[in-house]
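User: Modeling request: complex.
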Amino acid sequence: GAVVSQHPSRVICKSGTSVKIECRSLDFQATTMFWYRQFPKQSLMLMATSNEGSKATYEQGVEKDKFLINHASLTLSTLTVTSAHPEDSSFYICSAKSGGRGATQYFGPGTRLLVL
Amino acid sequence: GESVGLHLPTLSVQEGDNSIINCAYSNSASDYFIWYKQESGKGPQFIIDIRSNMDKRQGQRVTVLLNKTVKHLSLQIAATQPGDSAVYFCAENAGGATNKLIFGTGTLLAVQP
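Assistant: Request completed. Predicted assembly structure:
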């Protein structure tokens, strides 16, 4: 089956620093990747949709200058949390799909971010 | 699909019993629905999907039922096992040209041995 990986799995950083999270599709080419954020005991909230070679589309209320997304290839998307603050601490999950509307999204294992 | 509160609805079942997890969706234009299983500290895992031109779909030990009239989706798990313990989310494709998924609030399934 389709495998999506994320790196790192856990990261602790100081307030004010930037953190980069990588999302890779290992055995398929992902035309679209998605970034979600999940707080404890809550559902997944979509942050942005990323298509290879084009700018990401951000959901309402998500600051594009704070959450930088780069989708440089069909197998890699990165999310950079700039000037992180404690309220950015969360579980960040990416997903990837190949194909058009209705194609299955495959999720990565998530990245736990803790900002001190 | 908005997350609410800090307490997930919980369904507690005995091992071997059948489980039914329900979900209400909001967008009548949604035409594709998916159930995901999420274990603690992990990403969501695809279980089964269904398109709006169907009202029932079966997989291995799982069945998804779709009632478009009342915008309701359910996941049935037969002979529930301890390994089924997890949070289950329904998701709907938001419709139109977008490929976005809108997730429900989730249900915690607790299987008692």
